[in-house]
Amino acid sequence: MINRRGLLTRIVQGFTITGAAFLTYPFFKAWIPKFENDLSLDVAINDLHPGQSKVVHWLGRNLFVHRRSQTELALLDTSSDSTREKLKDPNSKESTQPNFALNQYRSLRPEIFVVYNNCTHLGCEVLHEVGIFKCPCHQSDFDGAGRVVEAAAAPINLEVPDYQYISGNRIRLLQTV
């Protein structure tokens, strides 16, 4: 003979355990990191006029997105050998940037410059003036392409993030590992 009370107890226990498992599954799933997360960020640049900048917060850091004016482009185009000699890393060989930034503009397109806003000395946020970047903490100077001046405390050029153009007026910041 079957003990009805024991059978009903087992059935109720089974449903309770199954319900608890379904209830706790989302909480455990939230604790597991998702490695396929897309950490890219799209930034519109159509609202920038020549000489204007915007600061974008991405991955815990600020970036400058700057549309260079004709004057700023002319300063970078006419940089002579004597000006390049005053830079610590004029060819950006020691600095952190993607391969596309190994040019005199350190950008994909000469008119748009994207750079992290932190000085490479101690991480202070640099200030942008026409054609140059200045660190307010220890007076490191950088040219319009973020290259550090020889007498500065900063050891290397400003860091350029990896990005690509997804349209004529929109860039996508990319997370590189």
Q: Describe it for me?
A:
23% of the residues lie in helices and 24% in strands. With 177 residues, the protein is of the alpha+beta class. The protein has two domains: 1-32; 41-174, 3-layer Sandwich (Rieske Iron-sulfur Protein). The strands form three sheets. Strands 1-9-8 form a three-stranded antiparallel beta sheet, with no helix packed on it. Strand 6 (132-134) and strand 7 form a beta hairpin.
Put the structure in a nutshell.
By secondary structure, this protein is an alpha+beta fold.
Q: Roughly how many Å apart are the termini?
A: 66 Å
* Topology order in helix (H) and strand (E) letters: HEEEHHEEEEEE
CATH structural architecture of the largest domain:
3-layer Sandwich
Beta-strand segment tally? 9
Which blocks of ≥5 consecutive residues have pLDDT under 50?
none
Number of helices: 3
**In CATH terms, what is the fold-level topology of the largest domain?**
Rieske Iron-sulfur Protein
Major sheet description: 3 strands, antiparallel
Arrangement of strands in the largest sheet: 1-9-8
| Assigned CATH superfamily of the largest domain | Rieske [2Fe-2S] iron-sulphur domain
SS-based class: alpha+beta
What general form does the structure show? elongated
Percent of residues in beta strands: 15-25%
Helix content: 10-25%
Q: Give the CATH level 1 class of the largest domain.
A: Mainly Beta
Mean pLDDT: 84
Overall tally of structural domains = 2
Q: Give the radius of gyration.
A: 27 Å
Q: What is this structure's SSE topology?
A:
Elements: H1 4-31, E1 41-44, E2 53-58, E3 61-67, H2 70-77, H3 81-85, E4 112-116, E5 127-129, E6 132-134, E7 141-143, E8 162-167, E9 170-174
Antiparallel strand pairs: 1-9, 2-3, 3-4, 5-6, 6-7, 8-9
